[in-house]
Structure formats: C-alpha cells, structure tokens
Amino acid sequence: MGPDFTGVPTNMLTVNGTLRLSVYNPATFFGIRVSSTPVNLIYSDVVAATGQLKKYFQSRKSHRTVLVNVEGLRVPLYGAGSAINETKTGYQVPPELKFDL
After folding, report:
1. pLDDT per residue over 22-41, tens digit each?
2. Domain residues of the chain, as ranges?
3. Angle at Cα 79 formed by Cα 73 and Cα 84, nearest 5°?
4. Range 40-71 burial, b when 16+ CB lie within 10 A, else e
5. Which residues have C-beta within 8 Å of that of residue 38, sequence separation ≥ 6?
6. Domain of life, per the record (predicted)?
7. pTM, 2 dp
8. Would you call 16 helix, strand, or coil by DSSP?
9. What are phi and psi of 78, to 5 degrees?
10. What is the spatial distance between Cα 7 and Cα 19, in angstroms, rounded to a whole number?
11. What whole-number distance in Å separates Cα of residue 24 and Cα of residue 44?
C-alpha cells in the first residue's frame, strides 16, 4: 500500500522477471529477422511490467532461446489488487502476457 504519484492511496505492484521464449525457424532456404512489439505483462487491465525483445537474425533450420526482462516499479493498481492471493511463499498473481512477434 502506498500513494501514487498524485498522492492517492492504492496498492502498488513491483515486478522483476525474465521471460524465456523458444523460437524455431523451420525454413530450408531463408533466415528470419526476429523482432516484437513491447512485451506487456498485464494484470486486470493494468500494465504491471514491460520489456522489449532485442532484434536479431535467426538462420534457417535453427532453434534459439531468447530472454526478455520485464520490469515494473511501484505500479499503482487502483483497486485491481483485490484478487491477489497471499501464500506461504509470496503472492499469487494471475497475469496475462501480450506481444506480437
């Protein structure tokens, strides 16, 4: 619990995580350039964390695992935090992940 940037008291969420993606290019003749829109971790219509996949070239018939760091610092939830469940090891948050590759 804490105030947002205008002083309104609300629940705050801080997220620091890593998303691991496995990318496969099955093409026999062509490599691909891989990029994406910003990766948004969404909780109850609030963007809780964001990150960006670094652009790269992937050669033909190859597999690659890429990492995307997603971060959100003291994101105000404005009542959206009521469904967060406390457990013995922390909190359970049902997020949604959105991006285009």
Report:
1. 999 999 999 999 999 999 98
2. 2-80
3. 70
4. bbebbebebbbbebeeeebeeeeeeeeebebe
5. 50, 51, 52, 99
6. Eukaryota
7. 0.76
8. strand
9. 50, 55
10. 32
11. 31
